[in-house]
Amino acid sequence: MSAASSSSRRDILALAGACALAPALPAFAAREERPEDMSGDEVVRSGHRFFGSIARNLALAVQEAARRWGQPNAYVLGQEASGAFVGGLRYGEGVMFTRNAGKKRVYWQGPTLGFDAGADGDRTMMLVYNLPSAEAIYTRFGGVDGSAYLVGGLGLTELMAGDIVLAPIRSGVGARLGVSFGYLKFTREATWNPF
């Protein structure tokens, strides 16, 4: 066997090895640091600035969430609109804040199905628990939502995706009554497709 063909064979094997490792390299390079936990006072102060005078009971909602799930390691501030008559849709947009992993623009949308009727527009604070990385927010969170208010109200619900818990606190204007099952899909870009 000539030295040239042996060198060419080594080059081919090296190229094949590099091609096999190529898909793993972006995943390795994209690893992110886990967001740090935030104190309840920090979340309440941010929520009061966001909700204003509407959210007098915000501290109670944050305390209840802390009792259930501990300290959040991220939160989302945004706005959303939804409507339902048995089946419904919800669309929203906002910014996710973390202590050490920066901010991310997020959009969410999703369908609902249940005993639910009405329409509302909400300012929303979503507390996020057990978020392993900032990119992990871009997934579907499923759960049950209950609403009962006329003109305005404040509500806390729970949605889950694996170990990640999302606790939306909504301060809304509208008329809504019911219980529904559904999910919220978080995306990097706005879309009308709720599925």
UniProtKB/TrEMBL annotation:
Transmembrane segments: none annotated. It comes from the Bacteria. Keywords: Signal. It holds the Pfam family EipA. PROSITE patterns: TAT (PS51318). Residues 1-29 form the signal peptide. This is DUF1134 domain-containing protein. It comes from Methylosinus trichosporium (strain ATCC 35070 / NCIMB 11131 / UNIQEM 75 / OB3b).
